[in-house]
Target: Family with sequence similarity 126 member A
Amino acid sequence: MLAMDQGVVEEWLSEFKTLPDSAISTYAASLKDKGALVPALYKVIRENYSDLLEPVCHQLFEFYRSGEPQLQRFTLQFLPELLWSLLSVSAARDPHTSGCIEALLLGIYNLEIVDKDGQSKVLSFTVPSLSKPSVYHEPSAIGSMALTEGALANHGLSRVVYSGPHLQRETFTAQNRFEVLTFLLLCYNAALSYMTSTSLQSLCQLSSRVCICGYPRQQMRRYKGISTRLTVTSEFLVQLITGIHYALCNGEVELGSKALDDVLYRAQLELFPEALLVGNAIKSSLHSAALKSNNKEGARSIQVEITPTSSRISRNAVTSLSIRGHRWKRHGEMHTPEKSNLRCSRKAVGDQLLLSLPRVQIILENYSFHPTPVFHVMDPALLSPDPRLSSMHKAFVMSR
Model:
């Protein structure tokens, strides 16, 4: 570590201790103007045997415990690097060099699982309904959904998933290590829009290293770090994929693509269905999306292709509006010039047919004198020679 970087870190360590409580917000806003501080802190964290590592971890914990959102986000940006330092030291079976990092991570975890009154938190997550659009899907893209009784009963209902309460942890063990780390990644992902490009790059590197160490892909990636396989869980990989997805859409296309492939590679080896489902869904959605590879300092977002709202209703759907429109359409067609000319021509042909028929007058007389109608033939000579009409005429004459 250079003497200049060491001087920057030492100055940062000393100035916060003398600040009054009223000046913490102003100090937090001024941290982003110290461009040399963040790279120097990354160097301290990466050097496990540095003398500044313990005071730096203590200072970062004080930042997080202060409750100031900007100071908490300043600490969270180093979380991927801290996780990798912890996992790499644990794989090397040298826990004495990571004691301060363990204390920092456990301190953040224990602060996050309780509220301001010290009561255990219960986090809630709303699962999107397939019948309503979300940032991940459009109902019109799924296809027609059968309107069954069960579907109508569940329409508009939201499923809520709860997480917690979580137990306090005093030390890392093989059983609770990834439970704590997964929860810390959840807190990190909740503040992704505030993370810097350096932090997102560190997250992608963490994902690749954790998933390929000790496997044949490590040689393909030419990573010369530890060669011990690290145990992972499906929930931990899902949280990594969430952060990678954000990094992919916000400038880190190369690192993000490699990290996503490495996570899917490990998920296939471990047969983790949750990680495979989320990772393959994100990978498929990125094929048709134009990722922002050059704009790293622009607006933070996740790109999702949204179907226009005007095409949500199928053209074949029968609604009251479509029936009304169909009636107006038929009414308009009846008054078009072509239809009027055709109707006039049909009327002319009908008049000619009537003129060619015999002049027959049908008179319905009073039922009080004639129980049945009486037909009077006015001009029998003009009757058609049709034998059926002649027989009818004879029958009428005989009846009279």
